[in-house]
Amino acid sequence: MAMPDLSLNDVRGRYLAFFAARDHAEIPSASLVPENDPTTLFTGSGMQPLLPYLLGQPHSAGTRLVDSQKSFRSEDIEEAGDNRHTTFFEMLGNWSLGDYFKKEQLPWIFEFLTDELKLNPENLYVTVFAGDEEANIPRDEESAEIWQALFAAKGMEAKTVELITEQRASEVGMQDGRIFFYDSGSNWWSRSGPPAGMPAGEPGGPDSEMFYDFGTEHDTAYGEHCHPNCDCGRFMEVGNNVFMEYLKQEDGSFAALPNKNVDFGGGLERIAAAVNNSPDVFAVDELQSVIAVIAAATQKTYSENDTETKSFRIIADHMRAATFLLSDGVRPSPADQGYVARRLIRRAALHARNLGLDLNALAPDIVRTLGDSYAAAYPAVGEQAEVISTELVAEAEKFYGTLERGIKKIGEYLQNRPDVNGQQAFELYATYGLPIDVTIEVAAEEGKSVDVEDFNRLMEEHRDKSRAAAAGKFAGGLADHSDMSVKYHTATHLLHQALRTVLGDHVLQKGSNITPKRLRFDFSHPDKMTDEQKKAVEDLVNKQITANIPVTREETTVAEAKAQGALGLFEDKYADSVHVYKVGDFSIEICGGPHVDSTGTLGTFRITKEESTSAGVRRIKAVLTGNE
Ligand code: SER
Most CB atoms closer than 10 Å: which of 264, 323, 437, 532? Predict the structure, then answer.
């Protein structure tokens, strides 16, 4: 009954065709770099680019969509190297925007997995939502009943079992179940986790996940008994049917979204691994051809238990991820997306060195191979192969240069000391760009250790400083600290809040630039502002100025600032402790300052221009007069 091995291209193609045959319009993958979304560096799931449509905005392609979304999760960089984590992956998605719901979705996806891909239903297990009393969301009996009927049609009796929490699941085990009820810790999907932690305005819903059983032995390091959500590697999640129908309210309750939506997401690499009945996601053609390039250069082979397997996988994963990031316009740099690309390339370079290879020599062949494998689905990779290779080679060369200097420096340190202390490790990182894992490894070759704890403390200190600087730079966008610039900075806060009051809470700062002569402010808003709206904003700002309101600053935590309703940008870049600036009760914002003491000195605020900068982003230029 098993299929011959399928490639990622095969599985993607079959999925898109399966749903196209059920009246779904195929939509292209969005970029890995999200547009107009300052809250996250990368597209990490299929639903991110579709958020506005799940919230109710009509999609031009209709109410049934299917896609394969390029996704990248930087939190998995450290996990890469085992048989089931990749930083880059594709997420297959089918979407009902207020069209079909559970009764169609579960039978379709079951048919796709068992009839189209020929997965043995005996190896499939599913989970459903047990309900959340506190959030007043009912238990999902309907999905459990649908699943029961689907398994029955395959001649299987599917027992339902209450596992509820993962803790309890690992204590009691599977109890011959096929359909498992878990609580909102496992079977609720929103971008911010279970119902209780979701901010107002965030959509979410119960989900039903599907797991493939590879039949490998349970590893008790992960708990006494195995169960579908166990991380030991026996079960792999192959898809998640999210029934997105709720919207969190200001008062903490849940209301119905305008539509009952389906958001199905399934990791392409994982589904392919299940089809090929191999728990190693690197066994597919597209990654094997990268591994073949490495193997040819080392004369070593990639095999499941080889001690060097980890390095093969890390190089393959990181090079594929970096190649795709570069094909979406990212360039290695010290900040943001560019920094992540740099980390990927450097880590790959280090693992190439472990295998006795130079990444710069390998990179062009790897990129060419990826370009060929993905020619049909993502032609940009092949079309840009040359520039991507050039960037990768340059970055790898730079890193090896750094590495040589760092290794020499470590040698010097070790001449006078028995180990590498925290300060030295930090200097190697800050001055030579040497990652701590490299320092540890090089020291270990000499039988020496590194004071990692002290290094981490210094890193923390350094991070806090640079985050605070980043927050100040972005929130302020100040060209200088002249008197007028400071006034414009305070006026920017007033403008930000006034826009939210007049236009709505969807308005968020997208950029700011201040000179002593004017302010420039970019913000999210779909339409051109009317003259009345501009006037209302001007009036509201001027009212705050005339009232001569004191501007106060306090130091607090990000959590506390958020609890107070402070506006903030690039949340994850802030240090633990931040400054919050308040203009009376009118405006509250996380910001590095500086600001005037009181609004009365600002003069008269006037908008001089309102225009579009990109889709969904408007730009205002404004001046303060009568205060020079
Ligand atoms: N939103 C769900 C996920 O990312 C399904 O697409 O897992």
Answer: 323
